[in-house]
Specification:
Blueprint (H helix, E strand, L loop, with lengths): L17 H30 L4 H29 L1 H22 L4 H26 L2 H16 L1 H14 L4 H18 L16 H11 L3 H30 L5 H18 L12 H19 L1 H4 L4 H25 L5 H29 L2 H21 L5
Helix pairs in contact: 1-2, 1-4, 1-5, 1-6, 1-7, 1-9, 2-3, 2-4, 2-9, 2-14, 3-4, 3-7, 4-5, 6-10, 9-13, 9-14, 9-15, 10-13, 11-13, 11-15, 13-14, 14-15
């Protein structure tokens, strides 16, 4: 390591120490803003007369930008240190939210672009920081706590968003956004993030393309990438259009639905965490079960008007699929990537989720605009079935 040295690495941090709890709370507040605005933006855009296709494009921008920048995030963090990058990221986060407060829906394109830039670096900065701060035997627990802090906003964020949206006075929403812009910056003061600059492992765009081309010879990586792209396409479509769908047709209580779905995500990730395959082998039948859960959930949404209050059952199936798909596929990919190219390829394959999420918002927005919400969810079910077919055709890969 080069650059500044501090006493940070000599301090006895534990996963549940006050210093680490400070970072978990910082992460929770950061993702709270994203959780709330992910619900508010489509509602506000539709109210302003923006079409479903354009709404899908707007909501897909963030994850697309995140996908493009993610492979190079590690290089930037290594060059400037976790602490320096986090400082500028949170300043950028505050500026982004301030733009929304000042200009409202007119700033939505710029805000979504900036959110993608910030998001591309935040999670990697936090994970690298936690890895450096904890002993090897404590790292797993620290990462689990960090993951929990990023998922927790999905429990209350959508509910808060709907409550804020239903208030006639928009000052409540503005006040909430201002707080979420300021508090992470305040928590960064004294935060024990590493300030060391590491020896940079850099790569060019040509090397990136070469590594990706070489990885295509691994059938496991190809089918895993295809599966995560198709699966995250469904997740992206649901995240963007479910609130619009339920509010437009008065299907139950959207806040209750989103709370149930988030509760299933959080609960299943904890309860079923040991069931996620972690042996480096491809487990097609487990993945098929996850995709079947997604198929059932989206099919039930397609018939939401006929199901009435039974529509809440779809939240359970969609929650299970959302909770299990990403960790299952990414755990396999982390084993399947060649060790020599891991610093290049890991960011690329992590970005496949962003690609699918972005494509889901964009493509399904066009489907809604040309047909209906019900048809969009039926298309989502067919996407899941295509993924199931691909997994079963290649079920013997390692």
């Amino acid at each position: 390591m080069t650059g500044k040295n501090s006493s940070l690495m000599n301090r006895p941090f534990t996963p549940l120490s006050v210093a680490m709890l400070q970072l978990y709370v910082l992460s929770m507040l950061f993702f709270t803003a994203s959780s709330i605005l992910t619900i508010i933006f489509p509602l506000q855009a539709e109210k302003s007369g923006i079409s479903e296709g354009e709404i899908g494009f707007i909501m897909g921008i963030t994850m697309f930008v995140c996908m493009v920048l993610r492979p190079w995030a590690g290089q930037m963090i290594a060059k400037y240190s976790v602490k320096v990058m986090m400082k500028w990221l949170l300043v950028g986060h505050a500026v982004t939210l301030t733009l929304y407060v000042l200009f409202g829906i007119d700033s939505i394109y710029v805000v979504r672009l900036l959110q993608g830039v910030v998001l591309a670096f935040f999670s990697m900065s936090m994970q690298l920081g936690i890895s450096d701060m904890l002993k090897n035997e404590d790292r797993g627990q620290g990462m689990a706590m960090y993951t929990l802090s990023t998922v927790m906003p999905s429990l209350y964020g959508p509910v808060v968003a709907i409550l804020l949206w239903q208030q006639l006075n928009g000052n409540y929403l503005i006040g909430c956004i201002i707080l979420l812009a300021i508090l992470p910056l305040l928590l960064l003061i004294g935060a024990p993030l590493p300030q060391q600059q590491k020896i940079l492992v850099s790569f060019s765009f040509r090397e990136l393309l070469s590594a990706v081309k070489q990885s295509t010879s691994n059938k496991g990586l190809v089918i895993a990438s295809m599966t995560i792209i198709l699966g995250s396409t469904i997740i992206g479509a649901i995240s963007t259009f479910l609130p619009l769908y339920m509010l437009k047709f008065n299907l139950g209580n959207i806040a209750v639905y989103l709370f149930i779905q988030a509760l299933v995500v959080v609960g299943s990730r904890f309860i079923l965490r040991k069931q996620i395959p972690s042996d480096g082998h491809w487990h097609p039948y487990f993945i098929v079960l996850v995709l079947l859960s997604s198929t059932i959930g989206t099919t039930m949404l397609a018939f939401g008007e006929q199901l009435g209050n039974f529509i809440y059952l779809s939240a359970i199936f969609n929650g299970l699929a959302s909770a299990m798909l990403y960790p299952t596929i990414m755990t396999y990919i982390s084993f399947a990537i060649p060790e020599k190219k891991k610093h290049i390829l890991l960011g690329v394959f992590l970005a496949t989720y962003d690609l699918g999420f972005s494509a889901g918002s964009l493509a399904m927005g066009i489907v809604v605009q040309l047909s209906s919400y019900a048809m969009m969810f039926i298309v989502c079910s067919f996407v899941a079935l295509i993924a199931i077919g691909a997994v079963m055709l290649k079920r013997n890969i390692r």
